[in-house]
């Protein structure tokens, strides 16, 4: 079980958003969490992905991005918001925009974690930026994590205004045939309510858009259950792992649009012209790219 402590941190760079909470009174904290890279969560994700071979055991390297199975926030039930997310105002900045999405990140790995390691993770908010998009006001938050000397990571989060009931559900995109000839690496992930529920449980993610269909469609206005951003990123990294035995050194990813439980998530990759990296993309049942990434060894 992870243990966490907070202490004052360095104020984030960039302007504070205006109108979405009194950030002038908010000081970011440096969060320090200690956890053990136990074999159980890794074995559970290995099973969820239908990965070949045995799961990682004691002393084995932890696959790229699987550190997201650890350092999970043990938030008290009373501290959860109506959507299942922890209420903001402690580690994450306060604000009035309620809808949170995980939209990208950059991971640098110096040394892979191994099963059995006991590791400290230090995190702080390094950026808060106010923007405006087609759907209205947006607040982008960047979080920086360091896991001992092994992993350096930046996560990008975006907060949006609450869905308007009159807006109706999100319209599906026009189907676009996927150009399979452009990709040499392929993996299809059969996303369904069971898989999404298991991943939510495995990552201690109570966000209701991933497992509560009525909330996802009637409240948030989505056409179905939303596939987790971290699950898509892990699937992209898994494609690399199955084709290249060397551990990943860098992994940069960006979410483009939500993916839903309407059909398999088609994960594709190709080795870049420099032969030192791989371009990756996930596509929904309509052929639309939902996430892109680049990985190097």
Write the layout of secondary structure elements.
Blueprint (H helix, E strand, L loop, with lengths): L2 E6 L20 E8 L2 H10 L50 E11 L8 E16 L2 E12 L3 E10 L24 E5 L3 H10 L10 H7 L9 H15 L6 E6 L9 E7 L5 E7 L5 E8 L1
Identify the notable features of this structure and list them briefly.
297 residues; alpha+beta; Thiol Ester Dehydrase, Chain A; eleven-stranded antiparallel sheet; 4 helices; 11 strands; globular
Structural account:
The chain contains four helices and eleven strands. The protein has 297 residues and is α+β, with helices and mostly antiparallel strands. The chain has a domain at 165-297: Hotdog Thioesterase (Thiol Ester Dehydrase, Chain A), CATH 3.10.129.10. Strands 1-2-4-5-6-3-8-11-10-9-7 form an eleven-stranded antiparallel sheet, with helices on one face. Helix 1 runs antiparallel to helix 2 (193-202). The chain is globular.
* CATH third-tier fold name of the domain at 165-297: Thiol Ester Dehydrase, Chain A
Strand share of the residues?
25-35%
Total DSSP E strands: 11
Distance between the termini: 31 Å
Which regions have little confidence, pLDDT < 50, spanning 5+ residues?
A: 8-20
What is the CATH first-level class name of the domain at 165-297?
Alpha Beta
Named CATH architecture of the domain at 165-297: Roll
Question: What is the ordering of alpha helices and beta strands?
Answer: EEHEEEEEHHHEEEE
Mean pLDDT: 88
- How is the main sheet built? 11 strands, antiparallel
DSSP summary: helix tally: 4
| Class per helix and strand makeup | alpha+beta
Helical content stands at 10-25%
CATH superfamily of the domain at 165-297: Hotdog Thioesterase
Strand adjacency order, main sheet: 1-2-4-5-6-3-8-11-10-9-7
Shape: globular
How many whole angstroms does the radius of gyration measure?
A: 19 Å
